[in-house]
Amino acid sequence: MRIFGIEYAPLLVPLERRKQTWAVFVWIGSFFFMGPIGIFGLLYMFFFTRFYFIPLLYLAWYIADIKTPETGGRRWTWVQKWSMWKDYASYFPVKLVKEAELDPKFNYFIGSHPHGILCSGAFCNFATEGTNVSQVFPGITFTLTTLNCQFVMPFYREFFMTSGAVTASKKSIDYVLGSSRGGKAVVLVVGGAPESLNTHPNLDNITLILKPRKDYPNMPYFLSAHLVPSFSFGENEVYDQVDNPHGSRLRRFQDYLQKMIGLAPVIIKGRGIFQYSFGIIPYRRPITTVVGKAIHVERTGNPTEEEVNELHSKYMEELRALFDRHKNKYYPSHIKLNII
């Protein structure tokens, strides 16, 4: 039903679909609103109520807990198993496909591509049990890594850490993998914030930022972890983004802000809860994450530049091969992968 140019959802939407939309709204709402609401609430209690001691206690807790996101985080398995995440996965839907088993005797360093706008597939598959990742890969504990700034906002940082997420720093990754003999998998969305600015649906070329990331294949040498490529088909399609071609005034401003704050200031175009014309909720478009075969890496404390370059090239070849093996199932045949 369309009124004044706005397309509204039908009145008689099945309850199951309402639950799915609500689950996605909780996820995206926590990202955008939980931190600012937490700051406002703490300031209000401190200045305008007799409960001023609550913000002071939280501040003391925050300072004492500041290093937790880079020292293993605070995983709450029962939160990862919330039924809400099943609804979240069913909304798009998100699916998880494996090409090969991951042996729990080893640790793994998984590259997640593409970044998309908000890593919807990576979050669902590796930070929750929405797609039953612990059953798909028995004996493997997945840890999603992300930017330090994701752990700054009050309350949101606590909520996000329950998913098992940690900072995407060498110290943090070493903490997770360095002390484990096997059964751990760190997931890094390699393209980061710059790649999200290139995210637009239905492009003929999917662009990944990977060639400059020589530090990525360097780490497994030190941490005794095998490299694993993964690709989320459909990740770039769940949001539209305002046109921002390279060289445009908007893109220059976005690039400047991204370097300043770490996060990419994308201007997303999604849908709402009760209408489909605008909003921050992603569209119902399928995401299928395919996890490829492990590239075995022998641990060495001092890899040569030649060894790092060779592993980097091999990883890009395996990632491209994984994309080519599966793209015709999820994309038109003319879609190509562009690695820069």
UniProtKB/TrEMBL annotation:
- GO annotation terms (biological process): triglyceride biosynthetic process
One family name in Pfam for this protein: DAGAT
Q: What class of enzyme is it?
A: transferase
Instruction: Cite a single GO MF annotation.
Output: diacylglycerol O-acyltransferase activity
The protein's matches in CDD domains, at most eight in alphabetical order, are given as:
LPLAT_MGAT-like (cd07987)
Task: Name where it's found.
Answer: Endoplasmic reticulum membrane
Q: What is the lineage of its organism?
A: Eukaryota, Metazoa, Ecdysozoa, Arthropoda, Crustacea
- What family does the Swiss-Prot or TrEMBL record give for this protein? Belongs to the diacylglycerol acyltransferase family.
Protein name stated in the entry: Acyltransferase
Which Enzyme Commission number(s) are on file for it? 2.3.1.-
Q: Where are the transmembrane segments?
A: 21-39
GO cellular component, as recorded? endoplasmic reticulum membrane
